[in-house]
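Thread: sanity check for a docking pose with adenosine-5'-triphosphate

Original post by kr_44:
Hi all, I'm comparing my docking run against an independent structure prediction. Below are the sequence and the ligand SMILES. Could someone generate the full complex and paste the structure tokens? I mainly care about where the ligand ends up relative to the chain.
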Amino acid sequence: MAIAKQAVIDALKEVIFFKKQNNIVDLGMIHELHVNEKNIKVSVVFPELADPSVGIVTNSINKVLKDKFGQEVTVDIRPMSEKELGKGPMAGVKNIVAVISGKGGVGKSTVAANLAIALSKAGKSVGILDADIMGPSVPIMFGVEGQQPGVIERDGKGIMIPLENYGVKILSIGFFVAPDQALMWRGSMINNAFNQLMTDSEWGNLDYLVIDMPPGTGDIQLTLAQSYNIKGTVLVTTPQKVATADVRRAAMMYRQEKLVIPLLGIVENMAFFVPEDMPDKKYYIFGRGATDELAKELSIPVLGRIPIVEKIVETGDNGRPIALDDESLVTRAFDEIAVNVEKEIEKLDA
Ligand SMILES: Nc1ncnc2c1ncn2[C@@H]1O[C@H](COP(=O)(O)OP(=O)(O)OP(=O)(O)O)[C@@H](O)[C@H]1O
Ligand SMILES: [Mg+2]
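Reply from moderator J.T.:
Ran it for you. Here is the predicted complex with adenosine-5'-triphosphate included:
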């Protein structure tokens, strides 16, 4: 028999968040609720994920709903956004989009930089944050290498003013550390630097803050993702099976039980090669099919495919991302990726 949503909400009123001495429904902690024949899916927001009561509340929800309805129950826990907390320097940032990959060198920074530019060309206010301590390449790609962000004082605290180029606000973890010292940085230092870039910075009002995340699935990625309300992730892969296998691992990390960050979709980079003198030919040098398989398996779309083009390397190195070009094949591909990212986010907001 179908269960009425209201009955589930009433049942959830039995779950108390002791710290606030009230039930999770009246405290407005229910973020989403989906009920169907087989299961009940509840998404709950918490002010702090590290709070020990997260486990207690999760267990109570499971118990109350299973006892009452006997359905399969899934509980997602999400961090409360700065906005929901009603404060914070990031209150003006609407959507944080993290660009992630399983391993290095697949074109994460290239995608992050060009996605930021494509969104900005579409009239959005955009920032980019380079969180990849081992290879902070965003400043080079945006032609601001060697520059330092300005600092102002507010309430006795230093606030960084992002650099700006091509209409995009830019900050990088590379501003804190010389390249030869990056290996010596411990997790806590990286976290501190990241937090400063996020919250002690004047981002102002942004439609999108694109984050070039460090590659892989370590503690750092987890902490960074847990500490902020990330709207969604863009997965970057190359077509080889070994690359998609790594991306699959990264995707699973972002989809684990206590950390539900939506995967917006996959960008397949270096998807094929088009010889300049034979623009109608496509050579699938790194193979074909593995990205679509992964997208299907994860039930997420392929947001776009970027060919292998020498100009991507040139424009990246010269500090003028290819998405600024007038009408190249690659520019169009990045514009389409930006449109698709916006579409997926709209779906989440709907
Ligand atoms: N589609 C492409 N065609 C040709 N070259 C590309 C393409 N995408 C990226 N590259 C080049 O490959 C190199 C690696 O790309 P990029 O720095 O974006 O990867 P990454 O995943 O950010 O790497 P890292 O893990 O080191 O941060 C760069 O020199 C870049 O210009
Ligand atoms: Mg990079």
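DSSP finds eleven helices and 15 strands in the chain. Hope that helps with the comparison, let us know if your pose agrees.
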